[in-house]
Design brief:
Layout (H helix, E strand, L loop, with lengths): L6 E2 L10 E2 L10 E6 L2 E6 L7 H8 L18 E8 L2 E8 L12 E3 L13 H8 L9 H14 L5 H6 L12 H14 L16 E5 L2 E5 L4 H11 L3
Parallel strand pairs: 3-7
Antiparallel strand pairs: 1-2, 3-4, 5-6, 5-7, 8-9
Length: about 240
C-alpha cells in the first residue's frame, strides 16, 4: 500500500502504472443493489453470511439454479455474472454457492429462467441440449446450460478446446457428457448463424405394453422401472 497511489496490482516490483487509486473515504450504506435477470434488485441490510444461490432460490424463488455440493465442485448452481471491468462489461459463469450476496453490488446476474421457456421460446443452448438428449435425470442440466451460455457470453466464437473447457466444473452422473458436448458445439454454431432451422422435437410415444391378469392396456412409461411399477400396481401386489 502506498499513501500516494493506493494499492499495487502486482507482486513484482511496481512502477507508477501498476498502482490503482483507492477511495480512502468509501460511502457506507445498508442497501445492496444489483440486477437479477434484467430487473433491478435492492436488498436492505443483507445477511453477510448469505450466499448468492440462497438468495436466488429462497428469496427470489428461482429454483432452476440448483443447490448441491455448496463448495463449487459440481456446477449445478452455475449462473452468469456480468460486471464492469475497465469501463467495459465482462461476462463469465460462476458458482453461485461460492459467491456472497454482499459482493454483488452493481453487478448483473442471469439464471437459467432468463434464457427462455416453453411460452417465450428456448435459447439455442437449451434447444440443443434437449435435441441431443443431453438431459436424463435433469438435475445438472441448468448448470450445464449456464456454463455453455457463459462461454458464449464471454466469447461468441470459442475454440473447440474452450467449449470443452467451459464444462470442466460441471458434473453429470447420467449422460457420459458426449450428448452435452455435442449440444454445446451445435449451440455455438447456431448462435453464430451457421445452423440450419431445427426440426420440431418429436412427441413422446407409448413405449411399453403391460399385461395383467384379465387386463390388456397400453401404458405410457418413460422407463422400464416405471413400467414395472405400473405392472405391480395393476396386479395389486
Amino acid at each position: 500500500i502506498n499513501a500516494e497511489y493506493g494499492v499495487c496490482n502486482t507482486t513484482m516490483e511496481c512502477s507508477d502504472d501498476d498502482w490503482e487509486i483507492i477511495d480512502t473515504n468509501p460511502v457506507t450504506t445498508n442497501q445492496l443493489t444489483f440486477t437479477l435477470n434484467g430487473k433491478p434488485v435492492t436488498v436492505t441490510n443483507p445477511d453477510p453470511e448469505m450466499r448468492l444461490v440462497e438468495y436466488i432460490r429462497d428469496v427470489a424463488g428461482l429454483s432452476g439454479t440448483k443447490r448441491c455440493c455448496n463448495e463449487g465442485g459440481c456446477g449445478a448452481c452455475t449462473v452468469v455474472l456480468t460486471r464492469t471491468v475497465g469501463g467495459r462489461p465482462e461476462s463469465s459463469s460462476i458458482n453461485s454457492c461460492l459467491r456472497r450476496l454482499c459482493s454483488m453490488q452493481g453487478q448483473s446476474v442471469v439464471t437459467v429462467e432468463h434464457l427462455g421457456d416453453k411460452a417465450q421460446g428456448y435459447h439455442p443452448v437449451q434447444d440443443k441440449v434437449a435435441r441431443n438428449n443431453g438431459s436424463q435425470c435433469g438435475f445438472c442440466t441448468p448448470g450445464m446450460v449456464m456454463s455453455i451460455y457463459g462461454a458464449l457470453a464471454s466469447d461468441p466464437k470459442p475454440t473447440e478446446s474452450e467449449v470443452e473447457g467451459c464444462l470442466d466444473g460441471n458434473l453429470c452422473r447420467c449422460t457420459g457428457y458426449r450428448p452435452i458436448l455435442d449440444a454445446a458445439h451445435q449451440a455455438i454454431a447456431a448462435c453464430a448463424g451457421d445452423d440450419v432451422i431445427p426440426s420440431p422435437l418429436p412427441e413422446p410415444s407409448p413405449l411399453l405394453k403391460v399385461e395383467a391378469p384379465g387386463t390388456l392396456a397400453w401404458i405410457t412409461a418413460s422407463s422400464l422401472t416405471q413400467a414395472c411399477s405400473l405392472y405391480l400396481s395393476l396386479i395389486h401386489i
